[in-house]
Structures are given as C-alpha cells and as structure tokens.
Amino acid sequence: MGRKIKRQEVKGRFGLRLKKLMDKKGIDNAHELAVELCDKKLVTVKTSDTFITAEAIRKSEIDSTVKKIRKHLVSDGINDLQGEFAMAYSTYFDCSLDYIFGLTDVMSNDRKIREAHEILGISEEAVKNVKDTISGKKAYKFEYEMGINQNEKIECINSFLSSDSFVKFIEGLCDIGIYIIGYNDKVKKLDEYLDRTYEKETINKAFDWMNFKEEHMEEIYEGSTLESPEQLVVDAANDIDAILDKRYELQSKKEFDLKVLKYNLNKIYTNLIDELYPDEFDNCQLLYNRIVESHS
Fold it and tell me: How many angstroms from the chain centroid is the CA of residue 104?
C-alpha cells in the first residue's frame, strides 16, 4: 500500500487537477488509484512472460500503473499523458477531458451544463440542480401528490426568474452575505490588532493575569491589592478586555441586524409569491410551508 500524497508533492496544472479529483473520490495515493483503474479494466499494461500466476501479473500491472500515476501527479501538460490514461481518468472520475487538463472548471461531460456555466457564470452544481429539478431527477413527495409535470415546473421557474421581485430576493440574500463578510472582517481586525501589538508570550501572560484576577475577585472587592505583572502585560490585558467587549457588542448587533435582514427577505419572498399567484397566495404559502417542514 502507498502512503498518502501530500499537497506539496504535487506539481503542475494537470497534477494538481488529478490530485483534486483523487481527493474528491477519497483516494489517498497512487497505489489506490492504480488498483481501481486496473480492476475496472480502464488501463491495459503489457506484462512479461515470466509472470506465470494471475496474482503476479496483477501485481506487475498495478506497480506499472502506479509509476505512471506518480509521473502524472507532477505533470503540467498533455505531453506526459497517454491517451489511454486520459480516457481512464475521464471515465473513472466521471469528468470531461477539458476539466482534467485544466481548460475548464466544469467537471461534467454534459456540454449544455458547461455552456450554461460559461454564459451565466453560476456554478456547475447550480446548473445541475435546476436541470435535475426540471427533469424530475430531483422530485419531492408533494410533486407526485399534486401531479406536477415537467412543463409546469418550467413555467414556474420561468415566472420566478422573470419576476421583478426575484431581483430583490437575490439582492436580499446578497445583503445577508455581505453583512456576514463585513462582520467577520471586523472581528478579524480586532484579533490582528492583538497579534500585531503584542508578542504571543505577552498575550498568554495577559490571559493568565485576567484569569488570576477573576479567581481572586472576592479579595479585590474586600480591598486586597494583588501584585500586578509588568506594565506591558497589564496593557495587553486591558486591550483584551476592550476587544472582548467590542466583540460582544458586534455579536449582539449582528444577531439583531440579521433578524431584520431575514425578516425583510421573508417579506420579499411573500411579495414574490403573491405577485406570481395573486389569487392563490394562501395555497402557495401552505405549499411552501409543507416543503420547508419536509426538509427541516
């Protein structure tokens, strides 16, 4: 058995793409991949006539395939790859040759999925999700109960995407995402201030001092005076206290603001459904609630 391949051992555009495919498949090393390719008869290897047992022949085939895979993991282009192995990788990993060679970020062999990704800029997974929903590959229980067919789903999706409220709905989702990014950035800057201002040892001493004070809080209230550490540690402790207070303030504000943003988003969604089905809003809301409950 081979050892797990480390990221830093992989080189070249093709090698990196092959390693990514192996990771996604849960394959740790060249030996594991070689066994898979040989057992599935995706590659053929010429063996010497000196091997007389099936076990010896299989070992020779796998060892030869391992050497080639290791070479591919440090490859940067098509010149180092035999056509047989290109097709073997494409078949085993269920991806296009263009993806293997780094010419596209879309794994699928479906040309229409790739075109939709290139035209709209949305991910391959998003395109597949819409396609599978329309085709019935992803169908929910309520669809069978209500007898919803493919044309009705297409009409529903078209109405949804062409609605003015759809744009507002997407903007509402983006507002939430942008807010969370902004919050995380503020918290990160607070942490970076500490790392930039004090040595790690000083920060650790400051935390120890803060814990020590907390343990002896009763003595402090009774008028006892504790021996303070060096001034730099005290300053660091004060800054940590201030940063913790600021983080609590930011967290509280975040919880409130997100509730407001989610409320507004729900309102936009409600308006969207009402706009699409003005006479059947109650039924649509009931249907929506059933979908949510079935997936919660």
Answer: 18
Give buried/exposed letters for 155-175 (b at 16+ CB in 10 A, else e): eeeeeeeebebbebbeebeee
Residues 209 and 237 sit within 8 Å (Cβ to Cβ): yes
Return d(Cα 60, Cα 104) in angstroms, integer: 35
The first and second tokens of residue 253, run together, are 């504000």
Based on its alpha-carbon atoms, the radius of gyration of the chain, rounded to whole angstroms, reads: 30
What is the reported pTM? Answer: 0.53
User: How many alpha carbons lie under 13 Å from residue 3 in its C-beta half-sphere?
Assistant: 3
pLDDT in tens, 109-167: 888 888 888 888 888 888 888 888 777 665 555 454 445 667 777 887 888 888 888 88
Cα dihedral 134, 138, 143, 144 sign? positive
**In Å, how far from its chain's centre is CA 273?**
30
